[in-house]
Amino acid sequence: SPLQAHLYDYFLAS
Amino acid sequence: MFEAKISQGSVLKKLVEALKELVTEGNIDVSPSGMSLQAMDSSHVCLVSLVLRDDGFDHFRCDRNMPMGIHFANFSKILKCAGNDDAITLKAEDNADQLTLMFESSNQDRISDFDLKLMSIESEHLGIPDQDYSAEIKMPASEYQRIVRDLTSIGDTVLISATKEGIKFSTSGDVGTANVTLRHNTTSEKQEEHTIIDLKEPVALTFALRYLKNFSNATALAPQVKLSLTKDLPIVVEYQVGELGNIRFYLAPKIDD
Asked: Is B254 close to A11, i.e. CB distance below 8 A?
């Protein structure tokens, strides 16, 4: 089954 | 000091109901330009972004930028004590450890005030770039709510595909499969009943249904919802909150193993 990505994979924490 | 009055207090009640299941706590940042919040769920899979502009309030004053650390279940408990037609005023001194909420009934014969304890919350801010999306779909918020509710009863994940034929939601589970397709439709005289599909290029992404269903807790806030999709990016589910601002939910996709 597909894996759940995290927001950190797309957006940088500042 | 910070002071903000909203005559339609029910909007504030609905906003907190919309996000309290998703995020336990977060910093509402107040500044002279309004109030904002960015908070992730505990698994860092989805994020709520709330923007309320100063000019959307009946009165707004903020002398100094400050974060107000809010526990949303507690905020909700207090807001439930406000009548639906009450005006709500929020007040806090600079660096205060409490937020005062004052509720006034519409004929001003009942006034109550509550203090909510504020928390010190270490929160990180995610930089979300402005970008063009491959597909933007506006649809009735009630339609979105129905689709995610129906599909959640069938499966755990949904494949959302936008093509020139329309936007299709597909899922499967133990009981079988389900597909719902919405077509571009602006025939109704009422704009809030329109489905508008703005497609730059076809896109298909898979998401966990339970989060998409959770976002529909914001249905009472707006007649329409906008979904924005781009390949390999989180979906954005956005509700305009009248002239006040908007609430956006970002959800990271499911990716192939």
From this structure: no
